[in-house]
Amino acid sequence: MYKSLIRMQDRYCLGIESTADDFGVGIVSFDGEVLANVNDTYIPPAGGIHPREAARHHALVAGKVLAEALKRAGLRPEDLAVIAFSQGPGLGPCLRTGATAARALASYLNLPLVGVNHCVAHIEIGKLVCGVKDPITLYVSGGNTIVSAFAEKRYRVFGETLDIAVGNCFDTFAREAGLRRDGGKPLGRIVEEIASRGEKLIPLPYTVKGMDLSFSGLLTSAISLLQGGKYRIEDICFSFQETAFSMLTEVTERALAYTEKREVLLTGGVAANRRLQTMIEKMAEEHNASFHAVPKEYALDNGAMIAWTGILAFKHSLTIPIERSFVKLKWRLDEVEIPWVKNEDVA
């Protein structure tokens, strides 16, 4: 029965994501069908992510998540053709835990190993699930804030944060406001809900330097407003969100105007924010570009994006021997050559 359910002519890649608080395993076929995408998230009891504690969580759940992914895909380990893992950037202990699991699988099954850049993977899974070819990408999460587009064999960074990522900025603000996760709802979502009831726009630092952004001044000022007690929290959340998203929209618009791309892709954990989607979509319309928000399952950190990008890399012989599969904590997006994107596919 089991063999009748799988397409034996297909080949499959298992991808492991472990850059921060998520341990994810995805299984994708070589023609881009996602067979499984299983995630287990570390939720700290208080404060932000502690890398060592997150890595301990990943080690504890790794076996369970791997087994569940294979079960949902209807595959055995022997059916896999490639093992991929997030090689960086990310938190060292978390990356090393995922890499160890990937190396063990590749060694035991005698399969090729592919190290994947986490930021490239966000773009590639977004292109796959949204059906876009050559977008300006706004990637916003707890660890990254990047505006990028493909040019000359790489995803070039047109703008990025100079200090903290916008997702981290929102989470820190929320904790300072005394907000807590409610039924698994992320802090950014709670801020968004409170902001929707805001009416008064309070001036806050708006820091765009050339094509780059800075969120630390905005965060400090918003926390000062919270502590001052002069304004309603609804108005502070509203002003905080409007200011941050206006900065992101401005930089994305400049990159779009410069490159004259015809597609805008929004991804990362913050991409789920409806207000940000509305602002970026409106901007894209004004430039006659199509707008695409990556669905939440694939916009958050996940194993499917690592598996799919692993397939793209494997098809171009970008495998690594286990003894050289070191994690890269600060591996930049624009350091990675992308041989699978052809000149005829880009504007």
Number of strands: 12
Helix count, DSSP H or I runs of 4 or more residues: 11
Described by its quaternary structure, the protein is single chain
Strand order of the largest sheet: 3-2-1-4-5
Shape: globular
Helix content: 40-55%
Largest sheet: 5 strands, mixed
Beta-strand content bin: 15-25%
Compute the separation of the termini in Å. 47 Å
How many whole angstroms does the radius of gyration measure? 20 Å
> Which structural class matches the secondary elements?
alpha/beta
Contiguous low-pLDDT stretches (5 residues minimum) are 1-6
Summarize the structure.
By secondary structure, the protein is an alpha/beta fold. It contains 11 helices and 12 strands. Strand 1 and strand 2 form a beta hairpin.
Question: What this model shows, in words?
Answer:
This protein has 347 residues and is α/β, with parallel strands linked by helices. Helices cover 42% and strands 20% of the residues. The protein is built from eleven helices and twelve strands. It has helices at 2-5, 51-73, 92-109, 118-130, 166-176, 187-195, 216-228, 233-259, 274-286, 296-299, 303-314; strands at 12-17, 22-29, 34-41, 80-88, 113-117, 136-140, 145-151, 154-160, 208-209, 212-213, 263-267, 290-293. A five-stranded mixed β-sheet has the order 3-2-1-4-5, sandwiched between helices. Strand 2 (22-29) and strand 3 form a beta hairpin. Helix 2 packs parallel to helix 3 (92-109) and helix 7 (216-228) runs antiparallel to helix 8 (233-259). The longest helix is centred in the last third of the chain and has 27 residues, at 233-259. The protein is globular and about 65 Å long. 50% of the residues are buried.
